[in-house]
Amino acid sequence: MHPLLEMARNRIVIFDGAMGTVLMASGLGPGESPELWNIEKPSLVMKIHRQYYEAGAQVVHTNTFGANQFKLADRGLSDKMRLLNMEAAKIARKACPEGKFVAGDLGPTGKLLKPIGDLSAEAAEDGYHKQADALFKGGVDLISIETMFSLEEALCALRGAKKLGNVLVSVSLTYNRTKKGFFTMMGEGVEKAVSTLEGAGADIIGANCTLGSKDMIELTKELRAATTCPILIQPNAGQPKTRSGITTYKQTPSEFASDAKQIRAAGANMIGGCCGTNAEFIRELARAVA
Ligand SMILES: [Zn+2]
User: Are 52 and 16 in contact (CB under 8 A)?
Assistant: First the structure.
């Protein structure tokens, strides 16, 4: 059994918080590529990882959310795909204390799959396969697919990663709350999403982003009812408020942490944070669920 799954059998596993919003707070400008900082400002990226580990995280995500070849192509960086992923993995590995873990982060392509869009499932799967390969070459312990709006695209990423062989893969979708329940942007409900991902070999099933910690309590109950897999939940720091182009999140670390206790009670095995969270949130979270 993978050592991370073994850890999750005995205790709640703490993941890191946001990378993107923390990079912005550290000076990343609008329109700048966060992934470029893996080669331009590696010490800053490493500092963020270290802060999360010190705050109590057992797992951090590499700074590669947008480092798939499709998103990089939009920024004219597709020739750097392998380099940016390998360097990101090395930075996180260097920051990682003995006995803790590095998750290679795979995010959405930013494209729509055929027949709605023009990206084929084969091309998406191949792109994710290459990204996951570079992340493992750089030293990650697992792959964490996250913030997926589409079950189909999540499946492409899962298949691409699993093509590497016997590797641990977590798949986390992002759900909206509607009057009829929780659905992805593409309209997939919890039960369908979970059974499809489990059937395709996902080792950890998750939900992240979009929802704050209150809504995540309910969603965790539904996920727990639908699967026996370990569950990873990473809420935002409440709902974002945008004023004159600047997005802020209103929740405090202690509110987040007290909801996290209920998320834990609802059946989550792994908890971290998404947009708007930082090391302070993770510190409070670790304290609250310990
Ligand atoms: Zn987020």
Answer: yes
- Over residues 89-139, the pLDDT tens digits come to 999 999 999 999 999 999 999 999 999 999 999 999 999 999 999 999 999
Residue 211 Cα to ligand 1 middle (Å): 9
237: helix, coil or strand? coil
> What digits encode the pLDDT tens for the residues 131-158?
999 999 999 999 999 999 999 999 999 9
Q: Could you tell me which CATH class the domain 3-289 is placed in?
A: alpha beta
pTM of this prediction?
A: 0.97
CA of 271 to the centre of ligand 1 (A): 14
| CA 237 to ligand 1 center in whole angstroms | 9
Where along the chain do its domains lie?
3-289
To the nearest 10°, report the CA torsion of 246, 250, 256, 259: -120
Centre of ligand 1 from the C-alpha of residue 251, in Å:
14
Ligand 1 mean position to 210 CA, how many Å?
6
Distance 236 CA to ligand 1 centre (A): 6
For residue 126, the surrounding DSSP H or E stretch is: helix 121-138
